[in-house]
């Protein structure tokens, strides 16, 4: 992110950016330098930010469309390093889940 700009600056920016710049779990405000941009293109930004208080990580993205901007985020216990490690891995299949369930049943 641009570190030369202080967010939020105006009352309108505080309303607009408030939900993006605040931890959804403990409500501590993020600072711009806490955001790490993982990918950026003309279509949007994929970012991760870790809360310094509760240590939850928000993994999210902004999408730019013809109609405007949209965002989606997920609060997780993953660290930034976990996200970088697992984000390009193949999804877990139903067969793998069933195999794991069977293994757990044997341990009981
Ligand atoms: Zn927090």
Explain the overall architecture.
This protein is 26% helix and 30% strand. It is an alpha+beta fold and 108 residues long. The protein has one domain. The protein has a 4-stranded antiparallel sheet, covered by helices on one side. Strand 3 (57-65) and strand 4 (68-76) form a beta hairpin. Mean pLDDT is 82; it is low at 1-8.
In terms of topology, how is this protein built?
Layout: H1 11-17, E1 35-41, E2 44-50, E3 57-65, E4 68-76, H2 80-86, H3 94-107
Antiparallel strand pairs: 1-2, 2-3, 3-4
Q: Note the beta-strand portion.
A: 25-35%
Structural class: alpha+beta
Give the end-to-end Cα distance, rounded to a whole number of Å.
Answer: 49 Å
- Main sheet makeup: 4 strands, antiparallel
Count of extended strands: 4
Q: Mean of the pLDDT scores?
A: 82
The radius of gyration over CA amounts to 18 Å
Biggest β-sheet: strands ordered side by side in the sheet: 1-2-3-4
Poorly predicted runs of 5 or more residues = 1-8
Helical content stands at: 25-40%
| Associated small molecules | zinc ion
Give the overall shape: extended
